[in-house]
Amino acid sequence: MYDLIVIGSGPAGYVAAIRAGQVGLKTAIIERNEIGGMCLNWGCIPSKSILESVKFYQRIIKDSSRFGIDGIDKKGISFNWNKAIKRTDGIVKKLTGGVEFLLNKNGIDIIKGEAKILTASTVLVDNRHLETRNIIIATGSASPVIENNHEGLVIEPKEFFKERELPSNIVVVGKTSVAVELAQALSMMDKKVTIISDTDGILPKADRYIREYMLNTLKKGKINLIFNTVVSTTDNVWTNGKLTVAEQAIDCDLIINSRDRKANLIESDIEIDLHDGFIKVDENCETSVKGIYAVGDVNGVSTFAHIGSAQGLHVVNLLKGINNKLDIRKLPMNMYTIPEAAQIGLTEDEIKAEGYDYKSSEFPLSANGKAQTEGATEGFVRILSDNKYGEVLGVQIIAPNATDMINEASAYMQLESTVYDIAQTVHTHPTVSEVFMEAGFMAVDKAIHI
Fold it and tell me: 129 catalytic, yes or no?
């Protein structure tokens, strides 16, 4: 008899399992594919590794002379996808191996196979019945298949990060940060890229300010954008390297499917309520069946790995009698675009809808000394605060390291800090993070360096 069975070993599942083992719960984790799930094997880690390679490539081309480096023949420089993939594979192997080591170290039984839930306390894996007091479903999500009748034309993200010959004309179907990241990376490899969104924009969960900024960035980067279009290649819309959509014939040798994701649902003999294709959960990630929880992007609350991990930890705390509220709005949202974008708290539209009397305070990286020395002055920190008490309601960042910088804002929001607290927080000099203090001063009165 287990105290907990976790189905799925991505960041939501393996973090929950490790923590459960640490606090003395007899735990098993079931995985049908690879330890680490989509994030470590085919998603977060491979994509970020490729982005770093691409950014390094672009910096050599664009900035080497400006930084005082002579002798580089730019005509002889090219991006080698397969070498970048070999580096990526090494990182993935090291991280997934580390996760498996930690699972074993904390006494977690690793069971490979396909799970089926028989009852709220019984899971079947390859004709093996496992009894448990609690179940966590952490099976993740995937992009719905693009209907296609041309072999090799459409590729799923899971299959993309492999050694291959990349063609010149690539279409990315999707509108989330994953789609934008892929499109920018490919464009910076000197590929001709088109993004096709099924709505009238990109980054639907981002603050409007960030959405508009990144939309302009994509246009400047000469990435073709097509909106309000659903892609299907079953109706003879692709012929001889041309994809006809929205009354346009665009060059297309490969389509990457990065559509909005839907839950990877598992077979179950008991009914578990769904909502819009995801497992429906309450504020504690418990499903409609008592004792069965769903964490990570299988529940549709968020697609971000760190939020899935936070949900997993929250459930384990509940099982140990600790019930602290998990406020999703106080967890950061990261977008590994170029430049990076991140946000936390309420968006400006949400603040307006809730009727706050608020202030927007923005400080640009271009006025920051460290950013200037690094040659990376594009972006800003923007604080949205309540005029009555000065409470920080939301933060948005565009910066090369926005996904790291947002964690400072996360600490402020967890502590319910005010703009006065931010203004009084002394930051070391010169650092890019000084922009937080400046934005705080701007909210209180006036920034120092502008």
Answer: no
